[in-house]
Design goal:
This protein has about 425 residues and is α+β, with helices and mostly antiparallel strands. The protein contains four helices and 13 strands. Strands 1, 4, 5, 6, 7, 8, 9, 10, 11, 12 and 13 form an eleven-stranded mixed sheet that branches. A two-stranded antiparallel sheet has the order 2-3. The two termini are about 55 Å apart.
Length: about 425
Amino acid sequence: MKKAKRVTVTFFSALLTLLTLTAALPPSFAVTQDEIDTLITQANGLQEERDALEQEIGTYSSNIAAALERKALLDAEISQIEADVSALETSITDYEQRIDVTEGELADAKAREAQQYDLFCQRVRAMEEQGRMNCWMILLRATSFVDFLTRLDFVSEIMESDRRVMNDLKALQEEISEKQAQLTDEKRELEAANQALLDKKTELDTQRTAANQLIIDLEASRTEAEASRDILTEEAEQIQGEIVRLSEELARQEEEARIRAEAEAVEAYRALRERMSAELDDFTVSEGLGGYIWPVNSRRITSTFGGRASPGGIGSTNHKGVDIGGVGYGTAVHAAKGGTVIISQYSSSYGNFVVVSHGSGNTTLYAHMSARLVEAGQVVSQGDILGLTGSTGHSTGPHLHFEITENGTRINPLIYLSGYSLS
């Protein structure tokens, strides 16, 4: 029994050595990492241009919002001015009616003045017809003292009548002058109000025209920027598709190389087994099921896969992975499955991120790390440290953004990761 155990250990040692040597053989692939890196560089350049255009679109949108707000204020002011215009037109109508009344009163005053003047002229003519006698001649012709007093009363009445006539004429003249001044002032006020109304209308029309033109110009600029962004997005999607295709091709070649290596290992195993003693005939090799492990030591999911509200206004609303929180800064990030690092770089959205290819179009992505500890082209085993958690890129706090891609399509990682909690 001890001999069988020693032979078994020897067999495993020999087999392990054989598999190690086979895995260490450098494969020769038709698709090179340099080609993928070149495409990634192009994609990063497009992403920077898209980010700049997004910022420019945001500026245009803000300016449009401000212009619309300004136009709303102008519309409100125009509505108020129109109300003022209506009130002013009512006042103008009132002015015109008052002017008509004043002109009537003025005509009546002039007529009364003419009547008073005619009365004065008639009395003067009557006095002339009586021999142009003055007041002293009337008094001196008195025959008695009683007659003198009578004549004195008559002369006083005549003089009082003359005074009343003159006073009435003077009052009429003052009344006419006041009516004329009032009429002139009201006409002047009416003309000033009309001119102010015309000036205000002209100013508002100019401002509204400028606001409308500004909105049209901003909309045109935003449309142009959005068209440029869409072109860059389409180009980026094409490059992303090429990256996926090349990654799948590299994975296929790696898979073929692995199959060849396994076949060579099996052949070596068979040859070795033939040289082993009969006690190894019952020895069987169990093959592991593989799968994913958690990339960090936390199981707390802070954001799930799919639609969500944008975190802090900077995160995606269509989440293509899961966010694992409760890690702080500097927690080790492990490879969820063994494979080849095809991307290790920084982007404005992902921050420091790493992508590992596991063959057959299967990749995992680890983002927002504070540091990357692997390089593109490096082969890693499951559990190897890829970097340290952080909050770089579009992130509102320390966490690990984790994605799984199968056959070129990103899927929900929680299909494979169990034991998590949501927060």
